[in-house]
Amino acid sequence: FVLTYNRIHATEKVCIATRSYVHQNLYDRLSTRPFLTKGEKIWILYQILRVLKSTHCYMAHGDLKLENILLTSWGFVVLSDFTFRIKPTLLSNETVIAEYDYFFDTSNRQSCYIAPERLIYDPLKSHSHNKIHQPEKKEPTINFLKGNPTLNNIDLIPSMDIFSLGCVIFQIFTDGKILFKLTKLLSYCRHELSFESIEKIVRENIENDTICNMICNMININPENRLFANEYLENKNIFPTYFDFMYKVALNIAHLDPSPEIIFHYIQKQTHKLIKIIKNTPKIHNHDPDSAYLFIINILTSVSTKLKLNKFKIDFFNLMINISKYLNCDIILNRILPYILLFIKDSDDDIRQLIPYYTIQLVKGISTVYSIEEANLFSDYIFPKLRKLETDPSLCVRIELAKAVPELYSEALRYHFLIKEGVQSGKIESSNVL
């Protein structure tokens, strides 16, 4: 999915291009809780490749980086800020640092995604003894607003985007580490830095060998050795077959009427199909089915608070409970429970009185706890939230809360022993046994 400019406003001094607002970019998402799971990262990678597969039939992006990969509130990837005929394709040897800073490093983070073939490097100008024999040349004056006409007329090609994507993937799977800075990339271009040394960095930071192999192919200094986007998509060791179905669903949602009820009704029907596809898909070591369930959860939770009819709200609760059966503790506590408890503030008594029941049903599905950080889940989070119902103006809500108290405390005790058992067995690291 590509996001283009809707309007361009030009004056004598400035040109402003505007586009639709999108929730956040990938750079911000990597540092936002709840953090992306490995499965979600692979799903994002799949979406980027699908977009590039489509756009490379017509044009290359030219400035692929985390800031230009946008994400909706439910995790749908949108590619923006294409640089075709806006930024120079090649950076000249004389002014490479100035051009790079002006066009490609507006964030001042010094992360470099430009393909090596876009940096014009003349080896005769890199050694002082060679410079003596060269006739003196004046530094070219470049109007950065117009770009260098000579360098700008050379078309971008898909392999340039593929190199940039390799750098992006490295950042995604290392939670923001930078593979290349400009000085490092220049050394790579001059063969002062070997491909083997870069490959070593990749493999030291990423455990998944299949992802490492993909990155290493993408950042190959020879553009002819890089594959096309559609060829990477054919790797079923990375991308499970149900991603194709998920992407069709995502595209349909992107084109649906933005009404929360319409989106909810559509995804409700597709959820059952997706679960069947997941169950019938052969299990492969690198595949994480959580990514598919999180895909559903992200869509449902993005519209849940905007639902108006009680029927849809109750269907939302039931769907979340059913999906939670396939998920681990971290996802249940971080991705589902907060949205269930949000309905404590719902304006309808019939919905508020259901919250204690559905909270119990959700925590019943927790059989293993992985982090000591979740030890005080009931005392610090669930009980303070539900306590707000003690003073609810509706008698029915207060009665339902009172009915749920014994089972809530029973679940709290069971959860306490799960934590204690995890600490004693060494599965949960802690200096204090609860």
TrEMBL record:
<protein>
    <submittedName>
        <fullName>Phosphoinositide 3-kinase regulatory subunit 4 (Trinotate prediction)</fullName>
    </submittedName>
</protein>
<keyword id="KW-0677">Repeat</keyword>
<dbReference type="InterPro" id="IPR055231">
    <property type="entry name" value="2AA_helical"/>
</dbReference>
<dbReference type="InterPro" id="IPR000719">
    <property type="entry name" value="Prot_kinase_dom"/>
</dbReference>
<dbReference type="InterPro" id="IPR016024">
    <property type="entry name" value="ARM-type_fold"/>
</dbReference>
<keyword id="KW-0808">Transferase</keyword>
<dbReference type="GO" id="GO:0071561">
    <property type="term" value="C:nucleus-vacuole junction"/>
</dbReference>
<feature type="domain" description="Protein kinase">
    <location>
        <begin position="1"/>
        <end position="243"/>
    </location>
</feature>
<keyword id="KW-0723">Serine/threonine-protein kinase</keyword>
<dbReference type="InterPro" id="IPR008271">
    <property type="entry name" value="Ser/Thr_kinase_AS"/>
</dbReference>
<dbReference type="Pfam" id="PF22956">
    <property type="entry name" value="VPS15-like_hel"/>
</dbReference>
<dbReference type="GO" id="GO:0034271">
    <property type="term" value="C:phosphatidylinositol 3-kinase complex, class III, type I"/>
</dbReference>
<dbReference type="GO" id="GO:0006623">
    <property type="term" value="P:protein targeting to vacuole"/>
</dbReference>
<keyword id="KW-0418">Kinase</keyword>
<dbReference type="InterPro" id="IPR011009">
    <property type="entry name" value="Kinase-like_dom_sf"/>
</dbReference>
<keyword id="KW-0853">WD repeat</keyword>
<dbReference type="GO" id="GO:0016236">
    <property type="term" value="P:macroautophagy"/>
</dbReference>
<dbReference type="GO" id="GO:0045324">
    <property type="term" value="P:late endosome to vacuole transport"/>
</dbReference>
<dbReference type="InterPro" id="IPR045162">
    <property type="entry name" value="Vps15-like"/>
</dbReference>
<dbReference type="GO" id="GO:0005770">
    <property type="term" value="C:late endosome"/>
</dbReference>
<dbReference type="InterPro" id="IPR011989">
    <property type="entry name" value="ARM-like"/>
</dbReference>
<dbReference type="GO" id="GO:0005524">
    <property type="term" value="F:ATP binding"/>
</dbReference>
<dbReference type="GO" id="GO:0034272">
    <property type="term" value="C:phosphatidylinositol 3-kinase complex, class III, type II"/>
</dbReference>
<dbReference type="GO" id="GO:0004674">
    <property type="term" value="F:protein serine/threonine kinase activity"/>
</dbReference>
